[in-house]
Design goal:
This protein has about 60 residues and is an alpha+beta fold. It has two helices and two strands; from the N terminus they run βααβ.
């Protein structure tokens, strides 16, 4: 399990469902602030419809 608010792009890419999205997730986080809920990941470019089942892989520390 990774903390989506402190993980590096490489750490995020290590989660199979997030592979290839680490850079965009980190960029979004730096521009708009911390993620508070899984639904916010849907706003990251390329992530729409890809968050189902991530509850066991990420946390929002």
């Amino acid at each position: 399990m990774i903390d989506i608010n402190s993980a590096s792009a490489d750490e995020i890419d290590a989660v199979p469902q997030l592979k290839g999205h680490g850079f965009e997730i980190v960029r979004y986080r730096e521009e708009r602030g911390r993620f508070e809920a899984l639904r916010q990941l849907e706003e990251v470019p390329g992530m729409a419809g890809k968050t189902a089942g991530l509850e066991d892989d990420i946390r929002f520390g």
